[in-house]
Design a protein that fits this description.
Alpha-Beta Plaits, alpha/beta, 15 helices
């Protein structure tokens, strides 16, 4: 069994997709379609930078999705790979869940791009810059991370945002509380606490205004049943019902990304190979959760052609 997985924020880099667009007309068409949907030359920003503009949440989210879908379409359209036959599940980390849903046919590409542009803007606007923060706790599992977050809260928001793998959990909340958590993390048993270079505190209750904005936007959008089940971030379970998927995408804005559980549950369900489309961020995380699983990362045309040959 195989799962296709899609990376989230942090996997962007200047130059992303440039070589792929030169090698594949299909990939080029994806970037053009996203540019047209957004009325913005996003691909030029992806290709040429500047880096600080690409990192902006409202640009990074649709850019990462566009890159993943360009890889996916090069694999399926050019490589002749049928998603329903090649993969048993799809899943994505945070914004990657939108990429997964686009790949599985729940959203068309222009809709996905517009939703992610809005999601990025809404997340950025939910909390004034400098008032929120996130930190990665290394050498901490979910239980320890929750203890640290609770101890640091002091009546402010401080909660687990991403349960990434058995040794890396990300916390999110008000800046003062996250600063306290960073200070006390080592004494409480974590190896290290690293502040993350993000512009907003994602996946915590402070994002409620963004969740409200997404609820409104998603109410106007047609959600199709995915071709294969999508493992949802908020439940770590497979889902195919369009209305449930819509609600889970709203919950996801303030809820914890249960990535460790998602991968563990897919592996327990029989998934032996995880294929990351458009990045090399999730692969090492998957190996820490399921060491016996095979991990394949697709970013270049060579990667895509090799997997297409293997699957076909």
């Amino acid at each position: 069994m195989r799962a296709f997985i899609f990376p989230g924020q942090g996997s962007q880099a200047v130059g992303m997709g440039a070589a792929l667009a030169e090698a594949s007309r299909t990939a080029q068409d994806v970037f053009q379609e996203v540019d047209e949907a957004l009325g913005q030359n996003l691909f030029r920003l992806m290709r040429d930078g500047p880096d600080d503009e690409l990192k902006l949440t409202e640009n990074a989210q649709p850019a990462i999705m566009a890159h993943s879908i360009a890889v996916f379409r090069a694999l399926t359209k050019d490589g002749g790979v049928d998603l329903a036959k090649a993969a048993n599940f799809v899943a994505g980390h945070s914004l990657g869940e939108y990429s997964a849903l686009c790949a599985a046919g729940s959203f068309d590409l222009p809709t996905t791009a517009k939703l992610l542009k809005l999601r990025g803007q809404a997340m950025q606007q939910a909390v004034p810059v400098g008032q929120g923060a996130m930190a990665a706790l290394l050498g901490a599992d979910l239980v320890l991370a929750q203890k640290i977050a609770d101890a640091a809260a002091h009546g402010e928001v401080c909660t687990v945002a991403n349960d990434n793998d058995p040794s890396q959990v990300v916390i999110s909340g008000s800046k003062a509380a996250i600063d306290r958590a960073i200070e006390m993390a080592k004494d409480m048993g974590a190896k290290r606490a690293i502040p993350l270079p993000v512009s907003a505190p994602f996946h915590c209750p402070l994002m409620q205004p963004a969740a409200d904005a997404m609820q409104d936007a998603l109410s106007y959008v047609v959600v199709g049943a995915p071709l294969v089940p999508v493992f949802a971030n908020v439940t770590a379970q497979p889902e195919t019902d369009p209305d449930t998927i819509r609600n889970q995408l709203v919950e996801q804005v303030t809820g914890m990304v249960r990535w460790r559980e998602s991968v563990a549950n897919m592996f327990d369900a029989g998934v032996e190979e995880f294929v990351e489309l458009g990045g090399k961020v999730l692969g090492p995380i998957v190996k820490r959760i399921a060491p016996d699983a095979k991990v394949t990362s697709l970013t270049s045309i060579d990667d895509i052609e090799a997997l297409a040959k293997e699957i076909a």
